[in-house]
Amino acid sequence: MSIALANTAQITARYVRAFLRQPYYIIGTLVQPVIWLLLFGQLFQRAAELPGFSSGSYISFITPGIIVMSAMLSAGWSGTSYVIDMERGVMNRFLVSPVRRSVLIGGQLIYQAGMVLLQSLTILGLGLLVGARFSGGIVSILILLVGTILLGTAFAAFSNALALLLRKQESLIALNVTLVLPLTFLSATFLPVNLMPEWMQVVARFNPVNWAVEIGSQTLRSNIDWSLVGVHLAWLLVLMLVCAWLSIRAFRAYQRSV
Amino acid sequence: MDTISSLSQLSPKTTIDAISRLAVQTEGLVKTYPGGVQALKGVSINVRQGSVFAFLGPNGAGKSTMVKILTTLSRPNGGRASIMRYDVVKEPGRVRRVIGVVAQKSAVDLEATAAENLTLQGQLYGLSGAGLRRCVNSLLERFNLMDARNRIARTLSGGMQRKLDVAMGLIHQPQVLFLDEPTTGLDPEARADMWREIARLSGEDGLTVVLTTHYLEEADHLAQHVAIIDHGEIVVEGTPERLKAELRGDAIQVELASAFPESDIRAALNSLDGMLREIAIDGRVLRARVDSGASAIPTVLTTLDSANIRVLTATVARPSLDDVYLRYTGRAYSQAENKEVIR
């Protein structure tokens, strides 16, 4: 067991090292969400004037949403590292060693969680800088981070599973294009749910991205709705575990095809 | 075959001893890929501990499939296989601890340094601390990679990356090392280096080495036991010496000026009355086996000349594994290679 834990940390360290050696990747990971925040913050600024829009400032409203969206956008590419490892034979080298499949997945998801956290804190800092204010306080921000990390790692695990099954970078592009933006628009990222068409409101209820965004919207409330937070966090945790399990299973499918 | 036939002559007690000295044992391994491609059609081998065993065959013959099954990456559809008496399907965890694997394609993490590659590999086998550091350094030294220690693997030459692959396969001191085409794509100097290293591994370290190769001279040079594999079946196996000794006499090869009908050539050679054996005609190349090449060549040339079949070159060769391959598969090795590559 202690070897499994040590191996998990060592796999995580491998990704961290590679990340730190790619300056462009670091810039991309951190700068892109900043652009989203500033662009969307400006573009939809006057949405805050709509009747039914409860919170006063749009930048405060959109900052948690951009945090969630950015987590999805970067987690979707998670499988890329698996595609590269498969192409280079590194994956097969790992698979014929005694390391557990769950450790390979777990170590990489911890790295993904760290990335999501780093990215979220960057956006949060910039949001505060340009005027976002969170009346929910530090507790609501912590909840937002937990929810975002759960959603991000769930989606990263899904991306890994897809990479192992299809073994092509193209499949990940398709995943990101067809899932991330639609799911984001079907959530309260840009507009509160009560301003959406009726059918979208129904869909949003079953949309994991919206679960995370609604957890994030607690940052705007002075009293946190703990029952909503509890239920959404629980579902996100279940989703994450299911996706992680799927990606561990996907190793079998991969090994059948080599 | 070699081992099986010798086993059957032994008493029960010694038979058990002999089996326990086998590092790799397979019986009727079958692998069918989705889509019905039969990569292995019932392969049985025995590899003695401490020996070098070579699978020789063209690309697509089933060599890599064999290695993937023996190293627990892929599962067979039939038959059984064991490494150090651990079943590869039922006890993959135990098998993984006793094997080292160097895959056909380099498996170096190009974004990490040589030392980081080796260290993580050791950690996956549960090594840690000062012991692991010692292993990493001694392997870097042994494979002449000390200068590459802190260099990102992407910047290393192909030969150096290949050495790093082998070093990684050895970090946990395995009992059986699998080398899937260890020298493919290496320049002659790097290949000679690798050969020296492989010879040393089995010699000094008493390691069992199972290698696949499509270089005849590699199998001849390194292996104590060669199995020629073609279309998923072992066509012949034995020591290189024995395989070559089975071919009586010399091989002659005659290159014709142009392609003549095969029947014409055979008709012309008929008059030589059994002097030539195993005549094979591939386009403009005529191959045959004779008791003594030096005395046969003039006669063959005169005979062909009188039948108006013009000859460009004629060569005599002592038997090589190439001839063994030709004899058992019915086609020249280089030809089989080309065909597979085109496909």
Q: Helicity level of chain B, as a percent range?
A: 40-55%
Number of domains of chain A: 1
Distance between the termini of chain B: 31 Å
The helix count of chain A comes to 11
Total domain modules of chain B? 2
Oligomer: heterodimer
Rg of chain A, Å, rounded = 19 Å
Main β-sheet, spatial strand arrangement of chain B: 6-7-8-3-9-10
Q: Would you give an account of this structure?
A:
- The complex is a heterodimer of chains A (258) and B (343).
- Chain A is mainly α and 258 residues long.
- Chain A has one domain (2-257).
- Chain A is 77% helix and 0% strand.
- Chain A has 11 helices and no strands.
- Chain A has helices at 2-20, 23-43, 58-75, 79-88, 90-95, 101-129, 137-166, 169-185, 198-205, 208-216, 226-257.
- In chain A, α3 (58-75) runs parallel beside α7 (137-166) and α10 runs antiparallel to α11 (226-257).
- Chain A is elongated.
- The model of chain A has no long low-confidence stretch (mean pLDDT 92).
- Chain B has 14 helices and 14 strands.
- Chain B is elongated.
- The two termini of chain B are 31 Å apart.
- The relative contact order of chain B is 0.13.
- Classes of the chains: A mainly alpha (258), B alpha/beta (343).
- The interface between A and B is medium-sized, with 24 and 31 residues.
